[in-house]
Design a protein that fits this description.
398 residues, mainly alpha, globular, 15 helices
Length: 398
């Protein structure tokens, strides 16, 4: 695997830490900004909305740039908005900064996915994607718990400063390690628009649309619980606040294991992971809902659900990129946008159920319902496909 792909994974680590670290900072930030805990969940949703809008938009705008130039521009912008987030005392400003940071993150990840998959053999996309996503999972293992520790020691703002500082060496690493090829398409305006339109038309593929929908639903289930994991384990499971970093790290270890498993199976044997893994994920969320009040069960299920969520989710990303072969530059943006539709939807629904008085256990059963909905969607799509195509073409995900 080219060293440049690992450098992209290092950058994704910094961005993943930012995206997920609020899970361990919810109580502190809510108190400091004088807002409710469900309101702070909107910071995660705002980031996800920015990723949804930014992934295709930033990818299209960056078509005139070399991929290295695009990656550097997005990462520098990401660093700057974190400085703004660290110094503001206004919740609305913080909310806007999260959205702008997400735009930069979305552009970086979309271009990064396209760059990584273009640097490996056509049948090795899953392994390249797993390296990039390992940056996200390592963020869950190390970055998010470290952010929680920093928040407990020096306040939640210190975590934002830490993310900004981590970006500095990453910028130099990209300059030295990521090649700077010619732009993915000609910089001539009359050639850029047709190229973008051609790639956007690939969204009409039923296989791609279904895969993106499934990825969104699975990711919504993941983030519905993960966003509120700190209050779940402290208010329902009975852990003290000092245990929150350890619980977040445990989820991160599970997610790293899941991405590793997905990287090894998603290229050649995706259905062997998606079907049994999806069923286990559904059972796990249901079991977590029923046993959240038991410390031992909750502790174990945090790891199990982290593993299953990212194994299934990363495999769906890979399958989306295989389905988007007609969009080599924008395929990563499609996957990024779909996953962040889920990342916005999940915390929003979880916040609504908590605000409606259903308690901190409610995100767990919402996660179970979202995975069940993914199975229903897959079943309906398979039934429609069987009714419309010939027997030789009746394959949902190859």
């Amino acid at each position: 695997m080219p060293i440049a792909i690992y450098m992209l994974g290092l950058a994704v680590f910094a961005q993943g830490t930012s995206e997920f670290m609020l899970s361990g900072l919810v109580p502190d930030s809510a108190s400091d900004l004088n807002v409710s805990i469900p309101a702070t969940g909107a910071l995660t949703s705002a980031f996800a909305v920015g990723m949804i809008v930014g992934a295709p938009l930033m990818a299209i705008l960056s078509l005139r740039w070399s991929r290295r130039r695009a990656l550097l521009a997005f990462l520098i912008a990401f660093m700057v908005v974190h400085v703004v987030g660290a110094i503001t005392t206004n919740f609305d400003v913080l909310l806007v900064s999260r959205g702008v940071g997400a735009l930069a993150n979305a552009g970086f990840l979309a271009v990064g996915l396209a760059t990584a998959t273009s640097m490996v053999e056509p049948n090795a996309k899953g392994r390249a994607i797993s390296v990039l996503l390992s940056g996200v999972t390592i963020a869950c293992v190390a970055g998010v718990p470290a952010g929680a520790v920093l928040g407990q020691l020096w306040g939640w703002r210190s975590a934002f400063w830490a993310v900004a500082l981590v970006c500095v060496p990453v910028i130099f690493a990209i300059v030295r390690s990521v090649p700077g090829p010619a732009p993915a398409v000609s910089s001539a305006p009359d050639e850029l628009a047709p190229s973008a339109r051609r790639e956007l038309r690939s969204l009409r593929s039923p296989r791609l649309l279904v895969t993106l929908t499934l990825g969104a639903l699975v990711n919504a289930a993941t983030f519905c619980t993960f966003t509120y994991l700190a209050p779940v384990v402290t208010n329902i499971s009975g852990f003290s606040e000092s245990w929150v970093p350890a619980v977040l790290a445990l989820f991160g270890l599970g997610s790293f294991a899941g991405v590793t498993i997905g990287g090894r199976m998603s290229d050649a044997r995706p259905m062997r992971l998606l079907v049994p893994g999806g069923l286990a994920l559904l059972v796990g969320w249901t079991l977590f809902t029923a046993t959240a009040g038991n410390m031992v069960a909750a502790f174990l299920l945090v790891f199990v659900q982290g593993t299953l969520s990212f194994a299934v989710g990363s495999t769906l990303i890979t399958q989306a990129l295989y389905a988007a072969t007609e969009a080599p530059s924008l395929g990563g943006s499609f996957a990024t946008a779909a996953l962040n539709v889920g990342a916005a939807l999940g915390p929003s629904i979880g916040g609504i159920t908590i605000g409606a008085g259903f308690g901190y256990r409610s995100p767990l059963w919402v996660s179970a319902l979202l995975v069940a909905l993914a199975f229903i969607t897959a079943g309906l799509a398979q039934a429609v496909r069987r009714a419309r195509v010939s027997p030789a073409e009746k394959v949902f995900v190859s």
